[in-house]
């Protein structure tokens, strides 16, 4: 464990441009440094480094953060290992052990025995003791039955930091074997403390059902703690090649047409309980090439079903991009309605509805067209044209003329642009490229940015750079309509409460990895100093965002009613649309 003060010392001692400059050729353009992104193939530099803010951001693939995040992504290492690398670069001794030391004469069977005994202990505490009552009630409240809890051997790690140490000591487990298990953290004196405490425990297994590690979830969503805590890398556990529930899903893959990739453990478990037993999950939403390779050797088809909210849809976009043109794997996408995650959908609409929903799939192209259209104001000519250009580039990559015709027709219905005009602007099909050994992230057309999202980005920027704006929103209990912007706003307030002198680069260490790219994108803006009139205008624009979102939903519903020939529904929706347009004009003054 590295003290927080030491982490801050390392962060402030290194110029991010100097470190990244070892791997990326950077050139000054305006206020920032630019170079070719090291995380994906590109020919035009879109990777930017801002020295004054000490952050990086790629405007193409979306990665971003501080120097530690760069090292974690570039070298595929843990946060402590990233701090160690940067500290070594700066010549700062950490005086702590990073990573795991090899145990004396390690034996795989012994480690498996330790982990299985630990899983049994956590499960016993959950279902048979008073200490586990609150955790068991939490799982029941989430809708899990005792049978499901038993099937997945869910458990509970109590608050004590020495319970597991005493348990393994009582079983005469060697100190070095305990260290190698990944179940403990140790202080500088070498004393072991339970890594997991006051968490619901999910045993992580390999493809044969053997326990290789754990993930623990906090019972209360406290900002000071990560929601999920995984085992570190050990002799048995490497998160890049572990897929949750794989050993159960393998038996169902041939029967159900391939696995379904969910966003989290609870989604997999809820789906399993609802009769969808071929669900798997990566260790977070960042799918790895190793995991894709495992899946492609088991199945020719993969269905991606992440959360229906904005971060979930962005995660689908990343997965679809990564899986594009995979030589062995066909990819489908399930989009859940109303921003729901699988667990919420099942509880709201039932198991049978969910079973039907996961069979209602989109092709990657259909998903991308839908994703690019989210939040675009089709009444705004510039936004509409930007969307059309991006959508036509997507369709232009398709060589099959029938598929091209299908998607052009859908695009015409969405935008009210004649099919003939779209075909005239459609790029010629690209020549098929030979498959590569490792799927690479390729450049995607930039998603059009509607003015409501732009207003939220600008307002959050001013929050981070102007204390008066931050205090104004805090005092007014302002809420950003978009969840991930609100999460970043709340996180900033909590960060400043804990560290009044904290800076933006330090804050990025606290940001959820899935939001680090968004945060860096917001921070990399170059905006003039805020005036009271500017902030008033941004707030007014943002408050009308929900109305515009409803208008877009009704517009799409009208198109669907026209397609189905439902004139009554079309009339009802038109009335709603007109009334909302009046409301929007009132909101905009």
UniProtKB/TrEMBL annotation:
Annotated stretches, region: Disordered: 426-445
Biased composition (Low complexity): 426-435
Catalytic activity: ssDNA + n NTP = ssDNA/pppN(pN)n-1 hybrid + (n-1) diphosphate
One GO cellular component term noted in the UniProt record for this chain: primosome complex
Cofactor note (record): Binds 1 zinc ion per monomer.
PROSITE patterns referenced in this protein's UniProt entry, alphabetically: TOPRIM (PS50880)
Superkingdom of the organism of origin: Bacteria
GO BP, sorted A to Z: DNA replication, synthesis of primer
Zinc finger residue extent: CHC2-type: 37-61
Membrane-traversing stretches: none
Signal peptide, first to last residue: none
CDD domains named in the record: TOPRIM_DnaG_primases
Cofactors that this protein relies on: Zn(2+)
GO molecular function, one term: zinc ion binding
Record-stated family: Belongs to the DnaG primase family.
Record function comment: RNA polymerase that catalyzes the synthesis of short RNA molecules used as primers for DNA polymerase during DNA replication.
Domain notes: Contains an N-terminal zinc-binding domain, a central core domain that contains the primase activity, and a C-terminal DnaB-binding domain.
UniProt subunit comment: Monomer. Interacts with DnaB.
Name this protein carries in UniProt: DNA primase
Organism of origin: Lacticaseibacillus zeae subsp. silagei
Lineage, opening ranks: Bacteria, Bacillati, Bacillota, Bacilli, Lactobacillales
């Amino acid at each position: 464990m590295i003290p927080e003060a030491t982490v801050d010392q390392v962060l402030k001692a290194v110029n991010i441009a100097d470190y990244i400059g070892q791997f990326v050729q950077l050139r000054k353009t305006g206020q920032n440094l630019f170079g070719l992104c090291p995380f994906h193939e590109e020919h035009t530099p879109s990777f930017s480094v801002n020295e004054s803010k000490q952050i990086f951001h790629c405007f193409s693939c979306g990665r971003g953060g501080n120097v530690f995040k760069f090292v974690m992504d570039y070298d595929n290492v843990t946060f402590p290992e990233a701090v160690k690398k940067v500290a070594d670069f700066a010549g700062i001794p950490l005086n702590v052990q990073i990573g795991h030391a090899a145990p004396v004469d390690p034996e795989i069977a012994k480690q498996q025995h330790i982990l299985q005994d630990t899983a049994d202990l956590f499960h016993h505490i959950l279902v048979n003791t008073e200490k586990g009552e609150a955790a068991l009630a939490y799982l029941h409240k989430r809708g899990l039955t005792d049978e499901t809890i038993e099937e997945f051997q869910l458990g509970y790690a109590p608050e004590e930091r020495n319970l597991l140490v005493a348990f393994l000591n009582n079983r005469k487990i060697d100190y070095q074997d305990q260290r190698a298990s990944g179940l403990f953290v140790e202080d500088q004196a070498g004393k072991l403390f339970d890594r997991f405490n006051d968490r619901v425990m999910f045993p992580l297994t390999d493809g044969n059902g053997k326990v290789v590690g754990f993930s623990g979830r906090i019972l209360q969503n406290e900002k000071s703690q990560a929601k999920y805590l995984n085992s570190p890398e050990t002799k048995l556990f490497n998160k890049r090649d572990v897929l949750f529930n794989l050993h159960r899903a393998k038996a169902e893959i041939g029967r159900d047409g391939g696995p379904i990739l969910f966003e989290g453990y609870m989604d997999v478990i809820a789906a399993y309980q609802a009769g969808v037993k071929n669900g798997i999950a990566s260790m977070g939403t960042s799918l790895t090439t190793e995991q894709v390779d495992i899946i492609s050797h088991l199945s020719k088809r993969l269905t991606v079903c992440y959360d229906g909210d904005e971060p979930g849809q962005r995660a689908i976009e990343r997965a679809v991009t990564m899986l594009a043109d995979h030589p062995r794997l066909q990819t489908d996408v399930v989009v859940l309605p109303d921003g729901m995650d699988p667990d919420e959908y099942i509880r709201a609409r039932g198991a049978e509805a969910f079973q039907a929903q996961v069979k209602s799939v989109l092709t990657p192209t259909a998903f991308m067209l839908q994703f690019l259209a989210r939040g675009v104001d089709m009444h705004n000519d510039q936004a509409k044209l930007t969307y059309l250009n991006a959508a036509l580039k997507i369709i232009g990559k398709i060589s099959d003329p029938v598929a091209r015709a299908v998607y052009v027709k859908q695009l015409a219905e969405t935008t009210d642009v004649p099919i003939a005009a779209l075909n005239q602007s459609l790029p010629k099909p690209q020549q098929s490229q030979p498959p590569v050994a490792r799927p690479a992230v390729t450049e995607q057309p930039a998603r059009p940015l509607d003015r409501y999202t732009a207003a939220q980005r600008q307002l959050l920027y001013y929050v981070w750079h102007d204390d008066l704006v931050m205090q104004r929103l805090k005092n007014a209990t302002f809420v950003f309509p978009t969840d991930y912007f609100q999460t970043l706003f709340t996180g900033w307030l909590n960060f400043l409460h804990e560290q009044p002198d904290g800076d933006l680069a330090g804050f990025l260490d606290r940001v959820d990895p899935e939001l680090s790219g968004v945060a860096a994108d917001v921070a990399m803006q170059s905006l003039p100093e805020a005036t009271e009139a500017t902030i008033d205008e941004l707030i007014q624009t943002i408050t009308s965002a929900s109305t515009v979102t409803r208008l877009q939903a009704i517009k799409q519903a009208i198109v669907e009613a026209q397609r189905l020939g439902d004139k009554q529904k079309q009339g009802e929706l038109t009335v709603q649309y007109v009334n909302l347009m009046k409301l929007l004009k009132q909101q905009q003054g």
